[in-house]
Amino acid sequence: MNILHLGLLAGVLTSCAVLPQIYRAVRTRQVRDISVWQPVLLVVGMGFWLLYGILINDLPLITANIFSIACNLLLITLKIFYAETRAPSKVSS
Predict the structure, then answer these.
(1) CA 81 from chain center: how many Å?
(2) Number of C-alpha atoms within 13 angstroms, CB side, residue 14?
(3) Whole-model pTM?
(4) CA atoms of 56 and 61, how far apart (whole Å)
(5) Handedness of CA 29, 34, 36, 39 (dihedral sign)
(6) Which tens digit of pLDDT belongs to each residue from 57-70?
(7) pLDDT at position 63, please?
(8) Where are the domains of the chain?
(9) Helix, strand, or coil here: 30?
(10) Angle between the 59-85 and 37-56 helix axes, to the nearest 10 degrees?
(11) 3-state SS record for the chain
């Protein structure tokens, strides 16, 4: 295994970490227990890693961060969309 393959494997494994949460959110439409700040902070941090990867022309950093940013943006979108559609209705007394 060369160093490029090692970087790609690390990127795939860490990038896929959010997929179970996305799957659960889509399947259950339940996002109440998901903090929106965790994926927001990850997107900001990964944006810097992506910029760094572009500047040093590092394919594993670039591809892993593009995929991770897309997944975390999807999770943020699901959090916002399902939170609005599942907001408890106010019953006037």
Answers:
(1) 15
(2) 16
(3) 0.82
(4) 9
(5) negative
(6) 999 999 999 999 99
(7) 93
(8) 34-88
(9) coil
(10) 160
(11) CCHHHHHHHHHHHHHHHHHHHHHHHHHHCCCCCCCCHHHHHHHHHHHHHHHHHHHHCCHHHHHHHHHHHHHHHHHHHHHHHHHHHCCCCCCCC
Are 19 and 71 in contact by the 8 Å Cβ rule? The answer is: yes
Amino acid at 65: N
Tokens 């699901």 belong to residue: 78
Q: What is the pLDDT of residues 4-31, one digit of tens each?
A: 889 888 888 988 999 999 999 999 999 9
* Contact yes or no for 62/50 (Cβ under 8 A): yes
> What is the token pair recorded at 57?
């022309």
Q: What's the distance, CA 16 to chain centroid? A: 9
Phi-psi region of 87 (alpha: psi -120 to 50; beta: other; left: phi over 0): beta
pLDDT in tens, 33-86: 889 999 999 999 999 999 999 999 999 999 999 999 999 999 999 999 998 765
